[in-house]
């Protein structure tokens, strides 16, 4: 148990469709644990509506075959390497509670095509989207800090309505176009 709730530590068996309920034995499920689904064959991953999950821990979905995930509005933290090397194509981040996209979160997610960054996100960490070669569009609707090499190896267009704070030498090996919509 974590913070009066449970952490999902993984799945057993061969079912590639994962469903996470809000509670377990009347306690909230608040975290997807470290390496919970690392290297698993997952086709779908669904959170129950009004989920209590606040944290997706490091390497939770590392090297999975997951293509789509909808992050519930309760999630505040997605730790480093949470989705690295996965085949994720699309991520829908609901609500405005996510505080940051940690370094290397989507490291080498070569199938990722686009992402909308919620207005609650204050920073995008170093190497967050490293080598996401199919990531063409990213939508940012608030002022935030973008750390060193966040988009290393990418050829992207950042769509924004606000000025961005690009921190020192942020991407010398990326082709980034910023469009103020």
Notes on the protein architecture:
There is one protein chain. The chain is mostly beta strands and 181 residues long. The chain contains no helices and 17 strands. It has strands at residues 6-8, 17-20, 23-24, 27-32, 44-47, 55-56, 68-71, 77-78, 90-93, 100-101, 114-117, 123-124, 137-140, 145-146, 155-160, 165-166, 175-180. The strands form four sheets. Strands 1, 3, 4, 6, 8, 10, 12, 14 and 16 form a nine-stranded mixed sheet that branches. It has a four-stranded parallel sheet with strand order 11-13-15-17, with no helix packed on it. A hairpin with a 2-residue loop joins strand 3 and strand 4. It starts with 5 loop residues before the first strand and ends with a strand. The model has no long low-confidence stretch (mean pLDDT 83).
Residue share in β-strands: 25-35%
Q: Helix proportion of residues, in percent?
A: under 10%
Helix/strand-derived class? mainly beta
Average pLDDT rating: 83
Task: Give the end-to-end Cα distance, rounded to a whole number of Å.
Answer: 45 Å
| Parts with pLDDT < 50 across at least 5 consecutive residues | none
SSE run: EEEEEEEEEEEEEEEEE
The tally of helices reads 0
CA-atom Rg in angstroms: 16 Å
Largest sheet, in brief, is: 9 strands, mixed
Shape: globular
Structure summary, number of beta strands: 17
């Amino acid at each position: 148990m974590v913070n009066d709730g449970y952490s999902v530590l993984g799945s057993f068996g061969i079912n590639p469709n994962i469903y996470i309920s809000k509670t377990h034995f009347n306690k909230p499920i608040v975290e997807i644990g470290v390496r919970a689904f690392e290297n698993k064959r997952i086709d779908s991953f669904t959170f129950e509506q009004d989920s209590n999950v606040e944290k997706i821990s490091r390497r939770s979905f590392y090297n999975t075959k997951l293509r789509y995930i909808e992050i519930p509005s309760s999630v505040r933290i997605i730790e480093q390497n949470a989705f690295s090397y996965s085949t994720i194509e699309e991520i829908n981040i609901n609500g405005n509670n996510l505080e940051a996209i940690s370094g290397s979160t989507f490291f080498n997610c070569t199938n990722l095509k686009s992402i909308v960054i919620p207005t609650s996100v204050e920073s995008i960490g170093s190497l967050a989207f490293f080598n996401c070669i199919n990531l063409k569009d990213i939508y940012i609707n608030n002022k935030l800090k973008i750390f060193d090499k966040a988009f290393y190896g990418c050829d992207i267009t950042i769509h924004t309505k606000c000025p961005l704070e690009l921190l020192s030498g942020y991407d010398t090996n990326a082709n980034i176009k910023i469009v103020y919509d």
